[in-house]
Write a structure and sequence with these properties.
Largest sheet: none
Distance between the termini: 33 Å
Number of strands: 0
Oligomer: single chain
Length: 148
């Protein structure tokens, strides 16, 4: 185990690249073998980075990464824009996105790239954001990350 840890510590990029490739593409290969369509796993590079960091530098480095992620901030003007956007503008944007997603050529291009075109609207997107925030709060809590 020490040899692997030393290798990852000394050559993190050389270990990260094949690991990120493998973690990104293996679900797609499994899906193809089962006759289903799917695209690469978008979390593959993130999972590879966490593994390389944990193996090469240990748990304190992973906690430091999560701390840095928790400290990331968005400027107040963007919150003001998002929260202060009039409902009429949100509805107009929603209608425009729904209309564009109905175009056959765009749907074909998205499907060919491994995406499933779907439109759920602003309420569903808000729920997704709430769910993701809850999931990340739990992840940070389990990791024991605290703000400095």
């Amino acid at each position: 185990m020490y040899a692997i840890r030393r290798l990852v510590h000394d050559w993190p990029l050389a270990c990260f690249l094949p690991l990120a490739f493998a973690l990104s593409w293996y679900p797609w290969l499994i899906a193809l073998a089962q006759g289903r369509g799917s695209g690469p796993n978008p979390l593959g590079p993130f999972a590879a980075a966490l593994l390389v960091l944990a193996i090469g530098s240990g748990w304190p480095a992973v906690k430091a990464l999560f701390r840095a992620m928790a400290r990331a901030r968005v400027g107040a003007r963007w919150y003001a824009l998002a929260l202060g956007l009039p409902a009429a503008v949100v509805e107009r944007l929603n209608t425009a996105v729904a209309t564009v997603l109905q175009r056959p050529q765009l749907q074909a291009d998205l499907l060919a790239a491994g995406f499933t075109p779907a439109h759920a609207g602003p309420d569903a997107f808000s729920q997704l954001i709430r769910d993701e925030l809850a999931r990340y709060r739990q992840m940070i809590s389990v990791a024991g990350v605290t703000a400095e």
